[in-house]
Amino acid sequence: MKIKAQISMVMNLDKCIGCHTCSITCKNVWTNREGAEYMYFNNVETKPGIGYPKNWEDQKKWRGGWVLKNGQLELAGGSRTKRLAELFYHPQQPEMDDYYEPWTYDYKTLIDSRRKNHQPVARPRSLVTEKRMDIKWGPNWEDDLANGETARQDVNLRHMGQEITMEFHDLFMKYLPRVCNHCLNPACVAACPSGAIYKRDEDGVVLVSQDACRGWRHCIPACPYKKVYFNWKTNKAEKCVFCFPRLENGLPTVCADTCVGRLRYMGVLLYDMDQVKAAASTPEKGEIYHSVLNIIQDPNDPAVIAAAREEGIPENWIQAAQNSPVYKMVKEWQIALPLHAEFRTLPMVWYVPPLSPITRRVEANVYLPDVDEMRIPIAYLAELLGAGNTSVITATLQRLLDMRAVMRAKETGDKLPGHLEYPVETYEKMYRLLGIAKYKERFNIPAGIQQETHEKMRELQGGGSYTCPGGC
Q1: How does pLDDT run across 19-39, given as a tens digit for each residue?
Q2: Can you tell me the distance from the alpha carbon of 350 to that of 10, in angstroms, rounded to the nearest whole number?
Q3: CB–CB of 56/226 below 8 Å?
Q4: What domains lie within the chain, and their CATH numbers?
Q5: Pairing relationship of beta strands 349-352 and 3-12 according to DSSP bridges
């Protein structure tokens, strides 16, 4: 048993209001510069829809992630020989039009305009070519199903073999915030010819070395979530860094810290590195989720604690794992699911599925519906969060419904449901964490290996006059 620590995140989709605050703060901090205008390390999509970039979930087109070939894991992009032959030209490379061409407006026209009978107009101008352009797509073009036709092109609907109606009374939608998943088996790391992408040993964050990157761009199509980007100014790959400078100081990511709906939770998971390959190689894609749960270890188990200490994991990290809100939701209560586990990258960003509005036929006289009476089809959620396994979605939604039934019974005095999976106290804890948890309950992040260095620098602040503490 080789225990490693992983900083992980859970998002409660029931609480996302689609305000894009997370996207804007992330954009202003990390990609507000030339060459990165089209990049959104964090974006919020409306589902059903084709997303950002267009059709990122369609691996028949992009060939991202991993596949099983003769029982062995292989990059979906092909064997080493095939990828070597395509070293200088990758046929599945996304173009800027798949994301969107960033633009600004001719604001100078408004400022310098003379008095005239007609109001001056600030026309859109490309930030890349600086030429005037017609806006045809954007990173949130489908917001609130604004572009109804593309909703029908959602690859998840194609997989479940179902058409959707755009009639208002039968319509369904939900928001899907997305960041890099900092996977346990990242395809981008395996695909990089330069070895520039690596997974940090101390916290599992996946980063790109700007010094080692040579701009081969094989990481971009290899990532099935399309969360690696190419900076056309520096000719380097860039991606979400999980705000690692903040993590090293015990602070959550910017997107999590500024989330208006308070739907994001962050904490430490302890996992067995020796089981990662076997979990990613699970023959039946619908069982990958259960294989990942088996990787995640109980931080209160003495054997796990001893193995963690043997691997050099600090005591404060072990304690953080024992109090991790992520561990509770992912492993203990099993109410959080990975996004598209069938890509076999073993993502470490998890989602609590939404309890969507109930269908019209039962909403008049039902307070707490059955799982099958939700407006969002179970099969659709299964394609998104269950790798096609509807039983996983049904069980997860039932736990969330049981929590609501228990909390309602406390107020009304109604009889408790007879099929409860957990004790009442567990549902009360679940309600507190999902509904009214304070900041320190949602984020339990230990300061990283740089904690001591940062603390010493703080102590020296103001003590060196105009010279740098310890010399410049």
Answers
A1: 999 999 999 999 999 999 999
A2: 5
A3: yes
A4: 1-100+137-448 (3.30.70.20)
A5: parallel
Residue 424 is given by DSSP the state H
| CB proximity list for 400: less than 8 A, separation 6 or greater | 14, 335, 352, 353, 355
**CB half-sphere exposure, 122, CA atoms < 13 A:** 11
* Cβ proximity of 275 and 304 under 8 Å: no
Residue with the larger pLDDT of the pair 456 and 202: 202
- Is pLDDT above 60 for 315? yes
pLDDT at residue 364 above 60? no
Separation CA 173–CA 145 (nearest Å)? 7
* Residue type at 151 in one-letter notation: A
pTM: 0.91
CA 407 – CA 401 distance, rounded (Å): 10
Q: What is the pLDDT of residue 33?
A: 92
**What is the per-residue pLDDT for 149?**
80
Q: What DSSP assignment string belongs to 123-135? A: -EEETTT-SB---
CB within 8 A of 341, min separation 6: which ones? 285, 288, 289, 292, 347, 386, 387
Rg of the chain over Cα atoms, rounded to whole angstroms, equals 24
Residue 348, phi then psi, degrees to nearest 5:
-115, 20
Q: pLDDT grade, residue 218 (50/70/90)?
A: very high
